[in-house]
Write a structure and sequence with these properties.
Elements lengths: L40 E4 L19 E2 L7 E2 L5 E2 L5 H9 L4 E6 L4 H10 L1 E4 L2 E4 L6 E4 L4 H12 L6 E5 L13 E4 L6 H15 L3
Parallel strand pairs: 1-5, 1-9, 5-8, 9-10
Antiparallel strand pairs: 2-3, 3-4, 6-7
GO molecular function, one term: acid phosphatase activity
Protein name: Magnesium dependent phosphatase 1
Pfam family, one: Acid_PPase
Length: about 210
């Protein structure tokens, strides 16, 4: 099934490459400032959730750092790969408020996914922090995501009911059997999707 790409492109030479905007350009999710409860742990899928590609299919290794401050990563053919537009704003809003952050991916190339997270940066208040440094938990390997969450729960000690998960594939709703709340996203994670996810989490757990 074809995937849509974000409208903001890195250059006219590569119109399908998206980049994240600086964190301060993305408004904080409304649910983060309304005084109601929030999950303790936010978990994100990678492919078509944080970035618009399959990391085990589209980039051709070896990967190289770009000269744009980490907004994109170059692959062996010169293709450039970046985050969706609002990723920096979403991730920094979570971390700056003291919440924990995790990634749960079925990728067949976990080393490549980690390298992508290491080379891509999060622009925030004039700095460019490697994205990988924002994550408290990285679970990246094939298989049911219930396994990913069982490992995250064991390492974090956070109850499943305090976790909110963002993913683009409906089959991964099986994590809700554990008590996790999942928000299905389309065309990448955004501030609006985070608000929808938080509202679903509150409703499911009676935290409104």
């Amino acid at each position: 099934m074809p995937r849509k790409h974000s409208k903001t492109a890195f250059s006219s030479a590569d119109p399908t490459t998206t980049i994240t905007l600086p964190a301060e350009e993305i408004p904080t999710p409304k649910t983060f400032t309304d005084g109601l409860p929030l999950p303790k742990l936010f978990v994100f899928d990678l492919d078509y959730t944080l970035w618009p590609f399959w990391v085990d299919t589209h980039p051709t290794p070896p990967l190289k750092k770009s000269t744009d401050g980490g907004l994109t990563v170059k692959d062996a053919h010169g293709g450039r790969h970046g985050f969706y537009n609002e990723v920096a704003g979403v991730l920094t809003a979570i971390k700056s408020r003291g919440f924990q952050l995790g990634a749960a991916s079925r990728t067949c190339t976990p080393d490549l996914a980690r390298q992508m997270l290491t080379y891509l940066s999060i622009p925030w208040e004039g700095t460019a922090q490697p994205a990988v440094e924002l994550f408290d938990y990285l679970e990246m390997y094939p298989g049911s995501k219930t396994t990913h969450f069982q490992r995250i729960q064991k390492r974090s000690g956070v109850p499943y009911e305090e976790m909110l998960f963002f993913d683009d594939e409906s089959r991964n709703r099986n994590v809700e059997e554990l008590g996790v709340t999942m928000q299905l996203v389309r065309d990448g994670v955004t501030r609006a999707e985070v608000d929808k996810g938080v509202e679903s989490w509150r409703k499911r757990n009676g935290r409104t």
